[in-house]
């Protein structure tokens, strides 16, 4: 399995609740490698592109309203199987269904305020990373973690 990149957003509720460091720490402890990070406000235009697959669904307006309601922390994480690793670390979308020990299982309180977003596929990750980061904002740097977290293979 080759290294992948994936987008993670700490949503406005996570930022407001002071959970950014906790989330970064959990992803670092899973052996992922941070390559991009910024605090930003998502405007309606970016929100509509990010949630384009949900246009026309009854919950779409609330998604756009929520993600643009306050600052978010946008991050790009890299590693072997990064998309699946982030998804398992986040837990189920609905915190009621999220296992204890996951970000949502431990920290989120409702599906509408579930603290964090992560890309759901390698293909979607490529699209989302490009939506939130220019290539010049991503830093390629050598990490020595590979042999320590993936058995050296």
Structural class by helix and strand composition? alpha+beta
Tally of structural domains:
1
- Percent of residues in helices: 25-40%
Question: Main sheet?
Answer: 4 strands, antiparallel
Low-confidence stretches: none
Short description:
The protein is an alpha+beta fold. It is 39% helix and 18% strand.
Describe this structure as you would to a colleague.
The chain has 153 residues and is α+β, with helices and mostly antiparallel strands. The protein has a single domain, classed as 2-Layer Sandwich (Alpha-Beta Plaits), CATH 3.30.70.141. The protein has helices at 12-16, 20-29, 44-50, 60-67, 82-90, 103-107, 122-132, 146-149, and strands at residues 3-10, 33-40, 72-80, 116-118. The protein has a four-stranded antiparallel β-sheet with strand order 2-3-1-4. The longest helix is centred in the last third of the chain and has 11 residues, at 122-132. It is globular. The protein starts with a strand and ends with a helix. The model has no long low-confidence stretch (mean pLDDT 93).
